[in-house]
Amino acid sequence: MVHLEYVFDRAKDLLKRPFVRYVLLGLTSLIFGFLSFKYVFLKSANPIDELYQCAVPSMIYVPPMINKVIAIQEEEFMTRRERLASTLASENVDAFVMEPTISMNYYANVSSNAWGLSERPFLGIVFADEESSGTTVFFLLPKFELPRAKELVGDKLFAKYITWDEDENPYQVLYDILGPSKLMIDGTVRNFIAQGLQQNGFEIVGLSQNVSSLREIKSNAEIDIMFRVNIATISVIRSIQPCLKPGITELHLAETINRLFNYGGLPSQDSPIVLFGERAAMPHGMPSERSLNKNEFALIDIGTELLGYHSDCTRTVLPNDQKMTEEMEKIWNIVFKAQTAGINALGNSNRTSCASVDQIARDVIREAGYGDYFTHRLGHGLGLEEHENTYLNSANNNTYVQKGNIFTVEPGIYIPNKIGVRIEDAVLVSDLPVLLTNFRANSPYEP
Ligand SMILES: *[C@@H]1O[C@H](CO)[C@@H](O)[C@H](O)[C@H]1NC(C)=O
Ligand SMILES: *[C@@H]1O[C@H](CO)[C@@H](O)[C@H](O)[C@H]1NC(C)=O
Ligand SMILES: *[C@@H]1O[C@H](CO)[C@@H](O)[C@H](O)[C@H]1NC(C)=O
Ligand SMILES: *[C@@H]1O[C@H](CO)[C@@H](O)[C@H](O)[C@H]1NC(C)=O
């Protein structure tokens, strides 16, 4: 106690001295000043915040465009099932069986997010018979899950339910109702389910080409959704290109892109492809701590989804104050020219094979002497799946592009350890090809 009192008294004495007061005041101001500096300047110097703040004003029109999207209506689900039913009938199949994967989303509005795959079969069944003409979808499901299924499906969509008890064999329950039938199973139905159906008396056939291709022709409602999500996606790249500066890392850019998606009302992507310089020679490389050097390309390949429909866009860009070498410019222009050829081949779609579209674009790159460096197919179908039928590759010479198909057209040149360039837009096949990104890249400075 005595000691403490002594210390207090000494402190009071000290504080009475003007010199000590000034020193204390000075120290306090210094600490305060440093903290404010750190908060105001160092915080906003976070490269992700800086990029985001720079890019986000150009995204201003995206949230209202996404908010106004119109979901697929009940009638369209019924139309889909009617087309399925008549295709099944034409192939002498009694019913189509699907698990909660893309097809169940397409035909019955139940997504795999809403009902995950489980060891207990939950199957959607659409019949080919004339009476229901496909408008009804039947769900085979565990009895205890019925309230959940009803809540999920709602009272629309003409759903009917067939339930099985925990101690029953679900396939037997189905067989008791349907009797001997020929079932077409969706491409994603798991093997144990296919076997279960077969071992309990059903005849099983695999997914046919004609049934598979029903989903490839997009309706106007689907095209509208895909326009919105692809324009939002290219807007992210267009907004961020003028903000790029050497020094940012691939991971910073990837994180910023996800924040811009979220600003637009769209989900983040698990792994946006953001690759700088020679790393872009890996077509599906993952973003790293690598930072952008002077005068080097950034390849940005991103996509997100809206109401289950996907976008997919790639641009190979340069910060505005950076320069290309002659070779960089040459390669960029060859890839662009190849893309032009590929896109043009998607117009006038009468009997154009998928292989020929790939070939026409590939020829441009080959004739320029870079044929060995275009190492993947030209593109893929885009829709409820990020990569879906049909594929634009040279083996696909028996499939023809059809009006209503949506393809990515994404030629690239990849020279290992040196450079990678890819340009990608989603294109709707029509009399004239329609860009889902509104317009194409003009240069590495105008994505
Ligand atoms: C489809 O499902 C979504 C999400 O569960 C729901 O909001 C929508 O109303 C459903 N559409 C129809 C036609 O039932
Ligand atoms: C598939 O559809 C085409 C065009 O409608 C038709 O010509 C062909 O016979 C169908 N294939 C089968 C196996 O039914
Ligand atoms: C496609 O080509 C065939 C044969 O040349 C022609 O009869 C048909 O009218 C064409 N269809 C369209 C939509 O151009
Ligand atoms: C299509 O490809 C197959 C196998 O690659 C080949 O045998 C066939 O000749 C090709 N057909 C045409 C019309 O090019």
From TrEMBL:
Cofactor or coenzyme needed: Mn(2+)
PROSITE patterns documented for this protein: PROLINE_PEPTIDASE (PS00491)
Domain Peptidase M24 stretches: 228-430
Alphabetical keyword list: Hydrolase, Manganese, Membrane, Metal-binding, Transmembrane, Transmembrane helix
Transmembrane regions: 20-41
MF term (GO), any: metal ion binding
Pfam families: Peptidase_M24 (PF00557)
Family the entry assigns: Belongs to the peptidase M24B family.
Protein name: X-Pro dipeptidase
UniProt organism field: Schizosaccharomyces osmophilus
Lineage of origin: Eukaryota, Fungi, Dikarya, Ascomycota, Taphrinomycotina
Gene: xpa1
